[in-house]
Amino acid sequence: MTVSLSPPTPADTSRERRRHGRPALGAGLFAAALALAAMSLLSLAVGSGHVAPHDVVAGLFSPDRSVHGQMIMQEVRLPRTLAGLLAGAALGVAGALMQGVARNPLADPGLLGVNAGASVTVVLAISVLSLTEPAQYIWFGFLGACVAAVLVHGIGSLGREGATPVKLALAGAATTAVLGSLTSAMLLTDSRTFDQFRFWQVGALNGRDIDVLWQALPFIAVGGVLALLLGPSLNALALGDDIARGLGQRIVAVRLAAAASVVLLCGAATAIAGPIGFLGLAVPHAARLITGPDYKWVLPYSALLAPAVLLFADVVGRLVARPGEVQVGVITAALGAIPFVLLVRRRNVVEL
Questions:
Q1: CA-CA distances (angstroms) from residue 267 to 52, 58, 219, 253, 336?
Q2: Which pLDDT value is given to residue 16?
Q3: Which tens digits make up the pLDDT trace of 233-247?
């Protein structure tokens, strides 16, 4: 959060306007898109198995599955890269949206119990219905995310003041604790379910079937568009509920729309990659350092930067323990912790 020790001088204001002006932000968004394209190419080019450079290109545009390198591209690296793009964009936008609605700099997609809700229903699907394929239990993860979000909002809405940011955060933390305990109880009593669930729980991009990505894509697209449309309303909410109402904002409707967007984005992302921490928490802060507090820019920047970071973390995971791999959920937690601590200690971190 910004700690202002003295009023800004005219020179500071002019510098700030140049930094956060529309042309500069547009150029920065283009640079972020280039960075994302570079990370996508790196994700396609690096990994286990030998793939020659010409097979990377041919595997994308005219694949011949009889060629070993091109088969690896089609079966392994392309779905893995697409999973990183979808899950990363969804988590980045969802994190920025949650921080804006809750006016809480520590809000992330796990705050409203979305991950915990998805986890408990996936465990139920594996344990009770004996489902084993991600394409089968993706809908259970999505259903759990929806139910958890509705439950948190219902609990947070109790009382005369309605769903305030503080009450939502407390309701989310309590719901997460209860659902997490329920998940642990089921896993500890069922070793078969635990074996199936642990690969999903750690957060990973590998082994994702392309059908799962197609199933998740419409939800991420709808949730992302809805989130981008909410940018101006989030700017008004940042001024406080009373001022936002004075500006004509329908507070309850905005929060419900934001909750729906978060559920769509987080439910789909969690179904694709499992629960991945720090991404939705840290990336919006990094985007805010570039854009300032304007959510019309924070949201698209987060949508580009988060998948770039996720793909970079996935590539690091492929390289650090060769010939094995470290799952991306572990890498994002390890790489994200130190920069995030340094970020929040900066005196000029932009206030929500």
A1: 36, 34, 9, 21, 22
A2: 59
A3: 888 888 877 788 887
